[in-house]
Each structure stands twice: as C-alpha cells, then as structure tokens.
Amino acid sequence: MAEYCLDLRLLGRHPLCCGACRKGLRRHGLLLMTKDIIKFYDKFKGESSDEARQGWLQQHSQRLNFIDLLHLFIHEKEKISILDVGCGLGDLSAFLSEHEINHDYTGWDINERYINQGLKKYPGINIQVKDVLESTESDAFDYCVGSGLVSFKVGTDEVQDGYLRSVMDRLFSLCRKGMGMNFLSLKFKEDSDLYYYHPFKIMAKAMTFTSSVVLNHDFKTDQFSVFLYKNGSRISQFLKGKNVEEEMSWLLRSGLHGEVLKGYKRNDLQTGLSWVMYAIAMMSNGDLKGAVSIFREHQAIPLGMFYLGYCCLEMGMKEEGLRYLEKAKPQFNNDIHTTKLIERMINQVAKI
Question: Is 199 helix (H, G, I), strand (E, B) or coil?
Fold first, then answer.
C-alpha cells in the first residue's frame, strides 16, 4: 500500500478513507498529506526573517522566484487577477505592487500560521486558509501561480506524480489566461525532505494541458519554472500592446526569438530600436548575415553597434568586430554589466 491515496481526485470528497493508504482507515490521504506539509514548514518558525520562516533559507531566494514568475504576465497592460497558491504571508502581492503590476491579489495557503502572520503584516490583504485540491472553482482568475508549491516530498515517485498532476490540474482549471510554477531541478538534488523534478518530464506533463508552454531553466541554477498559457500562443496576447519595442524586448528576454520573427512583419518596425531587436532575433535564429545588414543601418543605436561588433566576430571579421565593440563601449557607461561584457569580449579576442 502507498503512504497516501493515489487518486487525489477523490480526496476531500470521500467521507472515509478509500483504503489505498496505510496511515489510518478513517483519515484520507489529503488530510495526512496536509498535516505532513504543515509540520515540515513549522520547523522554520524559529528563524529570524519572514522569508526564512517560510522555508526560504537562502538570502533573496523568495524574491528571485518572484522575479522569475513575473515573466508569466509582465506583458499585460490591463489589470489582472492573480491567485497565489501556497502564498505564505502574501509577500507576492507587495512585490507585484513594487513592480507596478496592476493586479487583484488572492492568496491561498494550507498553513493557518502563515495566514495569520500575513494578515498582521499586510492589513486588508486577501489571503485565506484554503487547500487548492479542495477547490471547485473554474476560470476564476486570470493567472494562477505556485512558488515552491510542490517542493515538499509527499511520498514515493508515484505518489508525488499523482500529487503534482492534481495540483497542475486545479491551477489550470482555475486560470483564464495562464499558470506558472517553479520546481527544484533534479540536477541539484540535496535535501531528502524535498522533491527534485526532471525538467523534460515536467515539460511533457505540461504539454498534456496546452501546446503553449514555456520552460525556463536559466534564472536560478537549482530551479526551473514552467508557464502554461490558455487560448493559443502568447504572441496573440503580446500584440495587443501599443509599445512594440517593449513587447519585442520581453519576447527576446524570454528566449522567444522565433515568436518575434513570426509575430512581427517588417512594416511593423517603425523605429530603429525595433529594427535592432528584430535583427537580434534573426541573429539568434542563425541568420547572421541578414542581422549584420540591419545592424549596419542602425549602428547609431548603442545596442545595434554592440551586436554589429558581436556578429562580425562570429563571422570571423576580427578587426571590424573589435572596432565596433570599442565604439560601443563608451555608450554603455551607465550599464556596468554590459561594459564589463564588452571588455571581456575584447580581451578574449585580443588573446587569439
């Protein structure tokens, strides 16, 4: 017998245990699972900071996860409703306000201690004790998110898979536009109390819900995130915005170079910056020659100058590439990261 009931669709609706779990005949698996999860997080209640008391023991870990989830809906121009499952104290709402995301926030958590602390920290915030697996609503929120929601190991691989499937099913049912979750990556397995996931398996599971899926494994080395969108490709949502450069920039940062090329025609490109970003997408798709011709036309834009130098180096035109990078460097004086990147590129090429 398994530790918990495997068919989680029955849990919370069945008056007696279905007999599939070994931990008691009159207490079904969901209650047991909830108790164990609360017990795990209660061991952090003596920590010094709010983040650590919610299990975020590495400095800024919670904030980094929030930044990653922000990409799920950062393109939205109008007010959106967001359900934060496993909300803890409700810190995500303050983070969204800090980043000027116009939103209606709702938070659910199974841990009453977190909810009580959150109501004291953020008076008037809309958070409540509620288990997503016992919810019955559908299409109730624009977006649903779960940060660290499925990190606790609830049992065997089979039980964990059933738990994850049920959580994803509820989040996808609850959202109107999309959902986002982050996972601990199997490549960095450490804590025996936590569960680590294979990115490809999560991607395959996500694709059973929708064909519009994004997996991001480059934000934090030990974690990855998955975004699932309803109603077709995200590009249809992005094109509603008035600021073409802003939309293209977001797509490029998300690694969606192909969607830039498919979603924009050349007569959409009204500014030099939009042309430069279009060329970046071309370059990322392997068309260096086509990208270079555009970068040459718009080298007055610092970003165009930088990428012109980069492409020249990639095409073996060392002297020309170095010349453009040297010209681009002083134009990024206020951007330490890019300045150091250019210096590193110049130094590496000079050694060859």
Answer: helix
DSSP 298: T
Question: Nearest to residue 69, comparing CAs of 105, 33, 114?
Answer: 105
Instruction: Give me the domain span that covers residue 291.
Output: 239-351
Q: What phi and psi, each to the nearest 5 degrees, are found at residue 48?
A: -80, -25
Distance CA 323, CA 328 (A): 9
Q: Are 258 and 184 contained in the same domain?
A: no
One DSSP character per residue, 105-130 reads: EEEEES-HHHHHHHHHHSTT--EEE-
- At 89-148, the pLDDT tens digits run 888 888 888 888 899 999 998 888 889 988 998 999 999 999 888 888 888 899 999 888
Quote the Cα angle for 89-93-96, to 5°: 145
Residues 84 and 92: their CA atoms lie apart, in Å, by 8
Phi, psi of 316 (to 5 degrees): 85, 5
CA dihedral 136, 152, 201, 109 (to 10 degrees): 30
Does residue 164 belong to any structural domain of this protein?
yes
Q: Which of 292, 290, 298, 289 is nearest to 269 (CA)?
A: 298
Q: 227: closest CA among 184, 174, 180? A: 180
> Which of 67-76, 98-107, 316-325 has the weakest average pLDDT?
67-76
Evaluate whether residue 234 is within a structural domain. no
Q: What is the CATH number of the domain that holds 209?
A: 3.40.50.150
Does residue 339 lie in a domain region?
yes
Q: Is residue 117 domain-resident?
A: yes
Instruction: Tell me which of 206, 229, 252 is where a domain ends.
Output: 229
Taking alpha carbons only, the member of 20, 25, 15 closest to residue 4 is 20
